[in-house]
Amino acid sequence: MRIYQSAEDAARNVEALDAEETFRMVFDETGERYLIRWIRENRRGWFIVENGEYALVPSGTVDVDALLGLIRKAEFVEPESLRSWLGELEGRLTDRSSGPA
User: Fold this and answer.
1) Residue 42 pLDDT > 90, yes or no?
2) Tell me, what's the pLDDT at 99?
3) Which of 1, 25, 40, 70 could be disulfide-bonded to 52 (CB atoms 3.0-4.6 Å)?
């Protein structure tokens, strides 16, 4: 699991050619899902590969259970220095998920 400061930071750090493979599931710390919105599609041809342009945008869907599942299955955390923060986030999300309706 790779943790970025923001969706904008993630998009700056992953080139468009790698975006779909890298960003399989994207969430913010509230469980809001993010999607890739293509501004300009990648171009691939016989002799050319050209980066497109994209942004990560909120999908309008909050899925705390899916985010908790990812956190709990994460074998690697990058940067490693945020592993304890991730544990704290898991605790907050678990409390919210199992709290009163």
Assistant:
1) no
2) 59
3) 40
Q: Alpha-carbon distance 25 to 44, whole Å?
A: 24
- What pLDDT is stored for residue 100 in this prediction? 57
Retrieve residue 98's tokens: 């199992």
Grouping H, G, I as helix, E, B as strand and the rest as coil, residue 22 is helix
Compute CA 15 distance to the chain's CA centroid, rounded to the nearest angstrom. Answer: 14
What pLDDT shows up at residue 94? 92
DSSP 31-92: -EEEEEEEEE--EE-SS-EE--EEEEEEEEEE-HHHHHHHHHH-S--BSGGGHHHHHHHHHH
In degrees and rounded to multiples of 5, residue 85 shows phi and psi of -60, -40
Q: Is 85:91 a contact under the CB 8 Å cutoff?
A: no
In terms of residues, how long is the chain? 101
